[in-house]
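Subject: mismatched residue count in predicted assembly?

I count 416 residues in my input, but I want to confirm that the predicted structure covers every chain. Input:
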Amino acid sequence: MNLEKIPEKKIERLIIYRKLLNNLKYEGKSNIFSHKLAELADVTPAQVRRDLMGIHYTGSPANGYDVDELEKSIGLFLDSSSGISLAIVGLGKLGRSLLDYCYWRCLNLSKIVAFDVNESIINQTIYDCKIYHVNDIEKVIKKEEITIAILTVPQEEAQQIADKIVAAGVKGILNYSPVIIHLPEGIIVENLDMMLVLEKVFYFAGNN
Amino acid sequence: MNLEKIPEKKIERLIIYRKLLNNLKYEGKSNIFSHKLAELADVTPAQVRRDLMGIHYTGSPANGYDVDELEKSIGLFLDSSSGISLAIVGLGKLGRSLLDYCYWRCLNLSKIVAFDVNESIINQTIYDCKIYHVNDIEKVIKKEEITIAILTVPQEEAQQIADKIVAAGVKGILNYSPVIIHLPEGIIVENLDMMLVLEKVFYFAGNN
DNA sequence: CTTTGTGAATTCGTTCACAGCA
DNA sequence: TGCTGTGAACGAATTCACAAAG
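Triage response: the counts match. Full output below for your records.
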């Protein structure tokens, strides 16, 4: 990997491009110009070109970008070589919903496990995803070598669960609990409080 | 309202500050310094001060900021004077989960309605939220004067539903469907594809 | 002292504009 | 001609650093 800093925004856009390219492939398109991809992704053509510059993929003025090749190049850039093993902590409505998404639409997942406290679902298996009791979380995460976790747990428990699983080896957390969790330098946390996003829409739709 | 442009990032942070202040209030704290608020929000003290400058709230070097007053000031700045009327379109697991959140944790919601295609829940009322058939969506949105909508519908339907509800008067959409929807200038759209966020965590946790 | 409020400096991200190419 | 790739210009957002205040 190169050492230049890759800004988060650029990564977000690359992920979007990849998905759009994948759709285009199934629509039978074989190439696309920056202005068209820009339109689909809701960004400017110059930005598309800059972003692709960042991953050293080059197109041609005549045909733009090759859909298939570009998708692969982005994949090469984004995906870690080893597959991802994921845990979903908390299988309420939101957790179940995320499990569905992951099963149907995920990518290079090599393993997925879930945790809950509801005795009636523990030890069940949904979509190859075994459900464990939260009490066993450290043990299972170590044994299964889980590196990423999604948290959909009550806010009182989010921080302590996060601390536990990080101690057990988790490197990245996507936190849907409505609290900001704090973790040591080097651990990736994305706090995604759905009500805060909604409030943002309220603001911009109300005051513009 | 003032006419200077308010950047999205600043609004996001103000929303976070407000929430933290609300927590602090219930913990009995009456004032707070910028560095402490910064720590809780995971930003720098200078940024907190800048952000508050933007809403013209001023503290004192001796006591920092008054928790209660600052929360009110942010509210005054963020909240539209009229209450919000919200629609949730699609009551699958994710939609139901969002309805729960809205009911328990929402703010200045004056009205909430939902839409689905599942006959078995149509005409039911959950938490004062009446469930209508999607076929009636334009009529109901007009009648109830809904201005904001959350979309949790299959991706094939997202764009056309969005077009319909915007025609019926909706000004802002929070779109959880896994497609980017495009709407006319002036309509606020927040596309929030949960899998894309997850991929971002994969990237940063895998490559750093 | 410690902390706020803020102009100035800096860093970061985006867009412009054009050379080079098919 | 119409597009890409990219240096340069621009603009936005963040941080620095210090005067003012208790």
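Residues 5, 7, 9-10, 44, 46-47, 50, 60-63 of chain B lie near DNA strand D (CB under 10 Å from a C1'). Marking this ticket as 'not a bug'.
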